[in-house]
Amino acid sequence: MAFNLFQRLSQAPTKPKSAPVARQFDVADLYQGPIALGAEGEAQARPFDEKLRQAYFWIVNHAIISPHYDIEYNDGPSQTYSVGDSRRTLNLPSAQSYSSFILLPLLTFATRRKCLFVGGPGRGKTASALLMGVLAGSTVKEVKRAMQHGHPQMTVADLLGNPLPADLVNAQSMDDIRIAWRAWLGMRVKIVDEYNRIPTRTQSALLTVMGDNYAEVLNHIYECPEAAWYLTANDDQGGGTYQVIEALRDRVDVTVQALAFNPRFLNELLLRVEENVRPEELVPPDIIFTEGEVDQIGVAIRQVGIPDAVRRRLEFFASQFELFETAGGQFEYMTKDTARLAGADRGQAQAADNGRDRLKDLGCQTLNGISVRTLMALMIYAKAMAYFRGNGEVELEDLRQVLPFVLHNKLQPDPDAPFFALPENAAYRSDRLGWLRRLFDLSNDEFNRLDLDRDDPVGVLSAEFDLGLGGVSERETLARLNRIEKLIGERTKGRKLYGPLYDDLLKLKYLHQRYTNYRSWLRSQ
Amino acid sequence: MISPAFASILASGRAQFNARAVEARRRFPALDMAAFGAFLHDGVDPLVQAVSAAAPERVGGVTLAAYDMALELVGHGLAGPAAKNPFLNTVWRELAPQFAPLLATAPVDVLGMLSNAAIHLGSVAGARPAQWQAGMAAVAPQVGSVVQLRAVGQVLAWRAGVAHFRLGALAAADTLPPALALAAFGEPGAQWPQVHAQLMANPWRGNADGREFGSFSGLGGAFGTPPQVRATVDGCGFAVRSAERHYLLVADAYGAVLHSATAQEYEQATTGMPSSVRLDGATVHVGARSIALDLPAGDIALAANAHTLAITSPWTHAIRLLPLA
């Protein structure tokens, strides 16, 4: 039947554009209404970002009860209230806002990255992952069967596959042994439930599949298709049966917290109980994505631009965290990673690192810096967010909204930092997402204070260098070298060393070295 | 009591119909089953009876389609005894049965079109749904396909006051057989090409007096303060400002419709006037015509687009619209 009552999709509202357009009235509007007419709906091909939005709105409206709009966008002033003794802010966003618990897994699906759900039992983590499998075109039964459930006795063979018993007896060489690969390896959405209950050795095998996209058993290789990954954990801070190996944790691109159920929505649950309804079995065919469509979405997302101004803010933010002045004797090695590799006593090293404003220095709040993989994930998710919102360029707010979820498991807070000792910041000890967002806001405030949007001499020198060295005379090269040396002299005069300054100095050293080499080459001609 | 035909279909598919209602309750938690029952009786039964008489072999499929659609419409609060606009109920009860042969072949499209159109017309201030219904009923025997139903509905919607449909409705009328197009315009003896040309050339064809639009919002009108009017850049409508709000007014012989607009659209609009228009005290001269206005002289403002002269005054919340031709 053409008329489909329960799987109709809402007209996903997209971000309205402000530019006035010429008025054109369509007489076909007469027949636009709540009743879907068969021929029309099929005739109109939807762009994929619209399809993605429709999938999001279907999930939030009909499938997952997650009324937490924690990804807030504003279009003009928003209404805010200070609530409770702690005077926390309740914000009523003035633009379309989203639930991270639904949106980020969906962006993970679109970008084929890896998403970790954390939260207490029974909060919809597995159900959400299951829905993503159904969006990829598998049946509920297939997704359920392919889902890997972490348990303490899980072996590598349980995870990847077994050699066929007959081959094991008769084979003359390893090549003769055929492997019965597990079906989940071929899925486009891979789900590992309670991944922190998997034994450490099996976690290593999982790491290979997650990291390099292939499985290996007895020298036999299974190449997995590109897939979106969903992992779940009740407690990611060591409450699982096994400690999650760091490399595996590092492969996770984004972490989403399943928030508490709001009992005000009990009527929705009651209806599901009474009618025995399972939303994953009612996913409308219109929001099922083919493999080719996800490929195209991935291409389109990568093409979304990140303007220089936004990129600079990210650079400035990322610069804050790696510097650890007392960790290295050589300038390049003054990093937290140097201290970590040496197993140095952090407390002692920190005690020696005095004189800086430890409240103002954002780097003092973390135990580590931001890895390259994390920065790449951050940019991909910011692009995906902009794409989802129907924009061709990333806005600073896109970056601000995805940043806490990408850095959730990556940037470790230092609980001994003076920042957390302030009463107004006490909540950030447990609310990591809130802390990361605050961190980014503080970084942006500092960026504004330094007026780096307009006055960035290192950026000017860098842009000059990016134009290329072809045709640059020796005289000009010397002038540039002098400018670099002069700038380093200015920037280091009587100033404490902070993360962004440290990175600027390293960049200037790099530029100086490139110009020095070029000058040598010029002289040899 | 519902008709025996409808009762027998409901009884034969009882489990299926009940399951559909249960599913609908999930989608629309506020679905009032008593209201749904009343709509089955009031809205669905007449068309089931009509189809039963016209094409008994198709009555099962039509009933199923109508039942599902009724669930959705009642679920949305658009149909049934508690509906905000009872016009949809009237369309199901009185108009849809007149298209019984067409309903039998394409129940979803026919009922969907009629329902959506009823809801749309009900939402356009100034439209005359009853006129649309009467027009549709009059041409029903001549409508032989869903495509014709679509076009004739659009033409009649325009004639029922949805002025901004003018160009689209004229294009739709061109797709109809000339006899049906002329029937839709109530001019069965005319020649369609001539009628079409006249309608294209003159939006005020058949209405030399123009019309008055708008009144004080406190009395149920459209404007909070006396409106100011400018002609839009495309020359087809008027940009209106009243009480810091902006509108787009589209008017012709059949009606006038107000849409929301932006301050930019108002700023972009023009205040030019054709040389044929002249204001002399409280009398406006359009070519050879002179029209005495019942407005105090002195503050009368004029704006003209390609076909229409709009007259406003600080002393009234209404806009006088006069054909220029």
From TrEMBL, chain A:
Highest taxon in the source lineage: Bacteria
ChlI/MoxR AAA lid domain boundaries: 369-417
A Pfam family matched in the record: AAA_lid_2
Domain (ATPase AAA-3): residue spans on this chain: 116-252
UniProt xrefs under PANTHER family: MAGNESIUM-CHELATASE SUBUNIT CHLD, MOXR FAMILY PROTEIN
Protein's name in the database: AAA family ATPase
TrEMBL record, chain B:
Superkingdom field: Bacteria
Record's protein name: Uncharacterized protein
Phylogenetic placement of the source organism: Bacteria, Pseudomonadati, Pseudomonadota, Betaproteobacteria, Burkholderiales
